[in-house]
Every structure is written in C-alpha cells, then in structure tokens.
Amino acid sequence: MRYNQLGRTGMFVSELCLGTMTFGPSEGSFWSTIAGVGQDGVNAIVDKSLKAGINFIDTANVYSAGESERLLGQSLVDLGVKRSDVVIATKVYGSMGSRPNDRGASRGHIMDAVEESLERLQLDHIDLFQIHGNDSVTPIEETLRALDDLVSGGLVRYVGVSNWAAWKMAKALGVSERMGYARFETVQAYYSIAGRDLEREVAPFLASEKLGLMVWSPLAGGLLSGKYDRDGGGEGGRLTAFSFPPVDRERAFACVDAMREVADAHGVTVAQVALAYVLAKSFVTTVIIGAKRIEQLEDNLGAVAVKLSEADIARLDAVSALPPEYPGWMIERQGGDRTPQPFVAEG
C-alpha cells in the first residue's frame, strides 16, 4: 500500500480509501439497493482494510440515513482502533429529513450536521469534512465561513468538496484566499476508465491548485467488474437494480474487452485492472473502494499489486479516449508552440 499527500496538507492517506456506502440496513429505503452490511460485516470489512494498510475511510451522513456513520463509529470502538491511526472523512449536503432546512450547504445545516455526524461516529473531530453536492441557493461565502468556523473550533481538521464544477471550485478557492478561510484541500469526483470526463477541466484544475482527488465509483457502479456483458447478462448485483453512474455502455464494454485481455496477460481480474488504471493516473490521490463481502474487498485490495506496463496504459488510454470537445481541441491546436523551451529569435 502506498500513501499519498492529501492535497497541500501534511497528512498522508492510503492510495485505496474504504468507502462505506454499503454499510447499513438492507430493507425499507432507497439504500436497500446499495447497502445491507450489518455491524458484524462492517467490523470484518474495516478490520480487513486496516490490516491491508488502508488508513483512510470515507462515509457520509446521508448514507443509509446516518446508519453508515453509526456502524463505522461503533466498528472503530469494537476493534479498538487508535484515533490517530485512521483518517475519517464524512460529508454533508443530502436530505436528512422532511423539513426545508434538513439539506443543503447552508450554515445552519452544516452546523447541525457536523454535531450529528460526530455523535454517530463517536468522535471528537472529523479529519476531512466535505460538501457533498452543489447548492445553487446558498452563497459560497456562507458555506466557506461555516466550514472555516468548524476548522477554527477544532471539530474539523480539513475541508473538501464533491461533485462541483471546476469554475465553482476555483471561485471558492479565491474567496477562501481573500477572506483567510480554510480552503478546500480535496475534491471527491467520479472517474473511471469508462468515464474520463474530469480530464477535460477538473484534472488540470486540481494539478494547478494542488488539490487531492478522491475517486468514487472507479468500477462505474460495477459495470467494469467483468461480471456483465453487452446483452445484459451477469451475476446480478447493484447494477441490476440501480444503474449509476450513467455510462456509454458501448464504450464501456469496449474498455472491458481490452481490460479482459490485459487481465488475462497479468493473471488478475478485470476489476483489478480497472482499479490499477485509475491508480496509475498522476492526478489521483486515492481511490474509494466499497464491498458487501470480504471476497469483493480482497479482490479490490489486490489492485495495488497490479503493475500495468506503458503499453498496457497506452492501449487502455486509446480504447477509452474522450471524443474531442471545444475548447479543448482548439487549445491543443493553438498551444503547441508555447511549450517550455528556449526562445530563439529568427535571423
């Protein structure tokens, strides 16, 4: 297991991050299609992950309506995990009730949510507190001031954001710098070999501003696991009941075909190749993995040992390449003569 610097902070996190969206009850809500792991299963998954070298765990208050946080917190107690040995991340934004202020990134909801998350997690601080979605109503300044107060008050160590456009994250960094607020250090975003969209705007922004990238759904909801085929055949699973994130299936299965050949050559699984491909990208800090069964977890953990060759990466890059899109193709066309190099005047 390798450990990468989290944004500009002095904290290092494992290249694989344990995701907890599968933690929670299996009946009675939307989350029944995704969750279903009870306390004993959670303890086993957390224990296996920690022993494999994972020190980074990501959850959210909205996962199973708070049950994911509660089960994770109890697991840390049950396993006797030393607080300084784990980096705990959670998120706020989603609906936690039926009232109008039970959602969003307002100061009120943030302040209410952090106290509730700390209680469920049985912690006195959260290492990384993230805004889980784009709030088109609350001013950025209000959200950032609330987060800064949490950092100043010691309830939160660092702050991050998830699923925002590059322009809005850039604006937020500008506001934070101008006002002296704690700035976003991480971005949690969807990225997979079948969904490389963030390479257009988000990845260059992250490199420029030195933000860490936490990748969610690197297997595209299981579509890239190798269990499914073009005709809809497969072994069941979450994808059968909940097809998310949206993916161009023809392109995705072209990727699966290529990954299957690479996997056979390396003696590994298709899922491990899909994860290894994302891990190989220089702008990726950590890849979030989740599982309902120990066998799934073990397979995902094995991805860190898969070393793709330059030829493997080039082949997978080619089959998954994004179609040209403006202004990218024009920037590439016009910027070719402005690469760093000595300037020699003609004549």
Walk me through the topology.
Layout (H helix, E strand, L loop, with lengths): L2 E3 L6 E3 L1 E4 L19 H13 L4 E3 L8 H12 L8 E6 L14 H15 L4 E6 L8 H13 L3 E7 L3 H14 L4 E7 L11 H8 L2 E5 L21 H4 L7 H18 L3 H10 L6 E4 L4 H8 L8 H10 L8 H7 L13
Parallel strand pairs: 3-4, 3-10, 4-5, 5-6, 6-7, 7-8, 8-9, 9-10
Antiparallel strand pairs: 1-2
Helix pairs in contact: 1-2, 1-10, 2-3, 8-9, 8-11
Give the structural class: alpha/beta
Radius of gyration: 21 Å
Biggest sheet: strand arrangement: 3-4-5-6-7-8-9-10
Strand share of the residues? 5-15%
The CATH architecture can be given as: Alpha-Beta Barrel
Q: Largest sheet, if any?
A: 8 strands, parallel, barrel
**Average of per-residue pLDDT values:** 94
Could you please say which CATH topology applies here?
A: TIM Barrel
**What is the overall shape?**
globular
What is the number of E strands? 10
Count helical runs.
Answer: 12
Distance between the termini: 55 Å
CATH class: Alpha Beta
Q: Going by CATH, what is the homologous superfamily?
A: NADP-dependent oxidoreductase domain
Order of H and E elements:
EEEHEHEHEHEHEHEHHHEHHH
Task: Please give the domain count.
Answer: 1
Give a description of the structure:
This protein is an alpha/beta fold and 347 residues long. Helices cover 38% and strands 14% of the residues. The chain has an 8-stranded parallel barrel, surrounded by 5 helices. Strand 7, helix 5 and strand 8 (184-190) form a beta-alpha-beta unit. Helix 1 (39-51) packs across helix 2 (67-78). The longest helix is centred in the last third of the chain and has 18 residues, at 249-266. It is globular. The termini are far apart.
